[in-house]
Write a structure and sequence with these properties.
Number of domains: 1
Strand content: under 5%
Helix content: over 70%
Distance between the termini: 64 Å
Number of helices: 7
CATH superfamily: Cytochrome c/b562
CATH class: Mainly Alpha
Largest sheet: none
CATH topology: Four Helix Bundle (Hemerythrin (Met), subunit A)
Radius of gyration: 20 Å
Number of strands: 0
Order of helices and strands: HHHHHHH
Shape: elongated
Length: about 150
């Protein structure tokens, strides 16, 4: 009998922490989102340089592609309610049409996984370029076209 009471008291004591963990600092969320997207942009630029033969760092390709996949796994959660205002280029459609946004993110995640599969299976030359172009078309470009506003000058 004492064990259920102790568990209940612990849960009750921790409930304010759970509530505050769900509250969001919009500015911090936006800064975090921008950092994640900057990391995506950096890895994408590195992948492009390798895939197009502009840089001789083929040994780094798998790492950059894996990083993109890891970062893409966060896309659904880095646009929380309340982070739709402030210094952001995110369009309202992210929050107004969450099903459409989720479907676009799912498509982007599948595109990233397909690129990773191509790289992991040893794709090279034209096959690798084709996989990279498909990734770009079905991930970044698709999402930005619908859900990212032009930067404010």
């Amino acid at each position: 009998m004492k064990k259920p009471i102790a568990i209940a008291l612990c849960l009750f004591a921790l409930s304010p922490l759970a509530a505050s963990a769900q509250e969001i600092d919009a500015d911090a969320a936006i800064k975090y989102r921008k950092a994640v997207m900057t990391a995506v942009k950096g890895h994408n630029a590195a992948i492009k340089g390798i895939v197009t033969g502009k840089v001789p760092f083929n040994g780094s390709l798998k790492g950059h592609v894996a990083a993109i996949n890891d970062l893409f796994s966060e896309l659904n959660r880095i646009f929380p309610e309340g982070s739709d205002f402030g210094e952001t280029n995110a369009k309202e459609a992210i929050w107004d049409k969450p099903e459409k946004f989720k479907a676009t993110v799912d498509k982007a995640q599948k595109a990233a996984a397909a690129l990773k599969q191509a790289v992991d299976s040893g794709a090279s030359g034209g096959d690798l370029v084709k996989a990279y172009k498909q990734f770009g078309k079905n991930s970044c470009a698709s999402c930005h076209k619908q859900f990212k506003a032009k930067p404010k000058s």
